[in-house]
Amino acid sequence: MGLRLDRPLYSLTTHDENLSAQHIWEYESLGGIKENNNPVPAPIAVLLVLIVTTAFMLTFPLWGQRPTAAIYSDYVDLLKSPEVQQVLDNKDLTPYQSDAQAMKLIEDRLSHFPSPYAFQRKQHIMTMDHLRYLAPKITKLRESGADMEQYSIIGPNIVRQNFFRLVDGKIVAKQPWWDAGYTIDIFYVIYFFAVVFCLIKGLPPTSWEPDHTKAH
Amino acid sequence: MGAFKYLFGKEEEIPQGTAAILFGFGSIVWFIIGTGLGSFNAAKLAFPDFVTGNYAFAFGHMRQVHVMTVIFGWIWGAFCMAFMYITPALGNTKLWSEKLGVWNVLTWNVGLALGLSTLWCGMTSGREYSDFIWPIDLWIAFLIVLPTGINVWMTIINRRTQGIYTTNWFFAAASFMTIIVFLIGNLPEFFHLTGLNEAYMTWWFAHNILGLLITPVAAAISYYIIPKITGNPLYSHRVGHLHFWSLVVFYSTPAAHHLMGSPLPEWLKSFASVEGVLILIPAMAFVCNITLTMQGRWRMFVENIEIRYAATSSLLAIPLNMQGGFQQTRAINWYVHGTGWIVAHDHLALLGFSTFAEVSAVVYGMQTLMKRKLWSYSLQNFHYWMLLVGFGIYWTTMTIAGLIQGAGKVFEVPYIDVVIAEHPYMIGRWFGGTMVFIGNIVWLYNMYMTAKSGAEVPEGLLPQEIAYDR
Amino acid sequence: MAFREYKMGGMFFGFALGFSMLITIFFPTIYITNHGAPNDYGLDKTMTYGHNNGFTYSDPFLKQWHKPIKAVLSKDPVTGQAFAKPMTVYVYRAGDPFPSTITHPRVLAGEGVIALSKSKGKIEAADDSKGAVFTLANGAYKGKELSYIVDLTATRNWTPTQVLAAVPVAQQSHASQGRTLYMREGCWWCHTLLPEETQDWETFGRPPLVGDLNGQSPTTFGSDRKAPDLLHVGSRNSSREWITMHLFNPRLVQPHSIMPRFDYLWGDKDANGKTINYTKWRKDYLEYAAGKTIYPPEVPTPAKSSEASHLIEYLLDLK
Predict the structure, then answer these.
(1) Of B138, B149, B98, B83, whose CA–CA distance to B114 is shortest?
(2) Confidence at residue A2, expressed as pLDDT on a 0 to 100 scale
(3) Residue A48 pLDDT > 70, yes or no?
(4) CB B436 within 8 A of CB B351
(5) Is B464 a member of any domain?
(6) pLDDT at B290 over 60
(7) Total count of domains within chain A
(8) Inter-chain contact B63–C188, Cβ cutoff 8 Å?
(9) What pTM value is reported for the model?
């Protein structure tokens, strides 16, 4: 006897018990139904891996982040710069052209400086009309000393986000890129697959294949 | 009516299968009532002045009655029928107690009638899916589900086989989990828990009554019907294990994904939305097992009505779980939450996936228990198509309506314009729902005629042979 | 180890289910209970709605028995002295059950709010068999400004009867009764109470925050929105006349509405004690709808004690 990890159930049982178990497995009729003992098909195993990967990838908190006031703070500074104002005041251009040019200029200037918001800026593109409307509100918010990352841009409004998250005992309204739920999930999935893997290894070997014709 | 005498009769005098047949007929009657109410409610949404200004027939009084009738009348009744004949059959034994089963039919019908009428009168706990007032919840847990559970567990314990077939794991576990879900999920009512806890527990109940009762039992029915009628062995015992354990582990956890827009703790929502996608594991294990069991017998999908119902159910599990897994993630949920999309999804689960499995169990069970062949194969065929096409129309129109609502929400269209845009789809919804209702009446008639004058199955013919004999 | 160990399977099953419930019930509810102190908004809601607006011992048929009254008090009910600023009070008459924020102060969640409500507000002295009058106040706790609940019966000896006598009936709001009707009539099957964070914010107002819901039961967010969100409807549309007409027959003010008529909530008599003739009203309305008359029939003003009036008061209270 002696434990074999690939067949724990088989190896923990005496030879006679195994023979009797195999006989039961192959000849027993459960209300006229037999169970086959095929392994999990390879495509399904691949599908399982795909499901688990997708589950984590798709629900990653970073993907769903709303634009915060913080990512546009620099836009407001640049909007006020003489350089941009000059483009906006250029009477030779139509308002559409000057808006587009000014925004291009702002984006160009911003691209020269590293920013933690570079990714989010690409996700949530700002237009000049929108920026003009938001600028005074963003300035006001900044002057109030609030944490800009806690405020979402929702259309023409800037509102405090509604996240119930606790950091050092204080509730913060910031969307995290990672959170405790994910950590629990990782352990939960590991626990599940570890137990199910052991369990499936403990099942009768695939060589025990009941043949339907034998039972009836 | 003769069944009343069995309530006080001796156990041996009650013919085997009495409880199952009573549950079966009861469930069809409740199904007709439930879908009738659904059709009536849908008519109100399509034609707002249809029976209105009336306390008894107000939409707000009847909407939940439709949901509860369908879940606890039709689905639970059909499940009980399946428990009462499949569980003993798989253990090569008879039901532990027919008498308890007959009493169970009584407590079920009385409790349900009581619950539905109090609900209809406006006595509600105000909690979706656990709308019943808590005395009714206790009735359901202790007088409806517990006796069924005892019968299932005792039948399994007294089986005459060494093994317990996959279907029976699900039956035993689901009836146990249903009691737990009822007792835990209604804690806010028993002990007056309030606020966010109440909101969360409401959806914990709603999620788990669907996930730990309806999904596993409907799947378990297919695990019986498909191998039994095709004559193929179940493809894999191992995949059955994967299905069972992943269901318990992953289906019981994502309750918070119903409240992604609420102020629940973020970590809980993140946890739930990952688990929500992982529901695809039991779903895919199930679909894999059933479709591979069907290998070589797909001809029967066309030729055999029970197989057609059961296989349709299993195939509908694919779109159902693809929708369910992904629509709850933050990335998609904000668009479809609270719209008709979700209503379509619910009906895909309960009217698509689950109902088709239950119909197959009831149709097959009735024939084997009464030892009679279907009175009219054509009428049953008619029912299948009414159910499938009616459901298809319902699902399509509600999905479109949901996408319109979602767009209206995102682009801030004045709400009334959304209502106007949805109007044709509300009519389509009513039409599809009514088809299901009419189909069910035909089904009841067919079942009644089967009981009365279906061709008797000759003595000695095995039930699964009926399938080939037709 | 024997073949097919069902005992072990059963233990595994118990463990798996128990572990799942530990993560999805135990941890979250403990977390939620300990965090999220209510602000003014949340405290006002819990005190306005009272113990429970669904099925409960004191109101099993949802007939709106034993519900608190919210009133605006402009003078001292004992001395009759006028206040500089009117005071919102929540009157629980003898026998009206208190919300769980009073009976179980820990539901208030925030350490400061609990401490202030207990020490300065004396909420533990409240006795529902005698009734009590509550209000909200601001106070400092460890240097932070917080709102808390005050039991005026314990702190100032005002009885519910005195307070109700000092407020004109018109200024007494039966929002709690109205909320019970909101449950009973199933308004929440179509109207949600949960503006979503993404786009709804603009149209329907601020989504609920942690601390907005403490003590409320049931919360009835609603899941199937077939009609506008109502969480802040009172701020959007505070016209009593519009809401009255809309409830009586939605198609009077919104021809495309699919909302059912709630005219049966008016009862037999209108505000002037006149019997409402529904048949005649319906006949006149159908003539109007067919274009035979120019004006629709007049919608009767609901009596103060009618269910319609309570429901309207609740809707107007949804700020």
Answers:
(1) B138
(2) 66
(3) yes
(4) yes
(5) no
(6) yes
(7) 2
(8) no
(9) 0.93
What whole-number distance in Å separates Cα of residue C260 and Cα of residue C187?
10
Q: How many CB atoms lie within 10 A of CB B363?
A: 24
All structural domains of chain C:
40-168 (no CATH), 180-317 (1.10.760.10)
Task: Verify that A12 and A69 share a domain, yes or no.
Answer: no
C5-52: pLDDT as tens digits? 788 889 999 999 999 999 999 999 998 888 878 888 999 999 999 999
> Which tens digits make up the pLDDT trace of C116-145?
999 999 999 999 999 999 999 999 999 888
Structure confidence at residue B353 (pLDDT): 97
Q: At a CB cut-off of 8 Å and minimum separation 6, what does B370 contact? A: B17, B21, B450, B451, B454
- Whether A161 and A80 map to the same domain: the answer is yes
- The closest of B160, B158, B139 to B150, measured between CA atoms, is B158
What burial class does residue B318 get, using C-beta atoms within 10 Å of its C-beta: 0-12 exposed, 13-18 middle, 19+ buried? middle
**Per-residue pLDDT, B208:** 96
Interface of B with A in 140-159 (CB under 8 A): none
Number of domains in chain B: 1
User: pLDDT-based confidence at B331, cuts 50/70/90?
Assistant: confident
Of A33, A164, A196, the CB nearest to B245: A196
- Residue (of B404, B125, A162) closest to C188 by Cα position: B125
Q: Is there a contact between B253 and B269 (Cβ–Cβ < 8 Å)?
A: no
Position B19 confidence tier, pLDDT thresholds 50, 70, 90: very high
> What is the pLDDT, as a whole number, of residue A213?
46
Judgement on whether residues A91 and A168 belong to the same structural domain of the protein:
yes
Q: Which domain holds residue A163?
A: 65-172
Record: contact A9-C3, CB cut-off 8 A? yes
Rg value, chain C, Cα: 23
Provide the CATH number for the domain around residue B408.
Answer: 1.20.210.10
Kindly state whether residues A53 and A96 are assigned to the same domain.
no
Is the Cβ pair B338, C209 closer than 8 Å?
A: no
Q: Does some domain include residue B470?
A: no
Which one-letter DSSP state was computed for residue C151? E
Name A42's Cβ contacts closer than 8 Å, sequence gap at least 6: none
Query: What per-residue confidence (pLDDT) applies to C100?
Result: 94
- Residues within 8 A of A (CB atoms), C 204-223 only: 206-207, 209-210
Residue A102 lies in a domain: yes
Percent of chain C with pLDDT over 70: 99
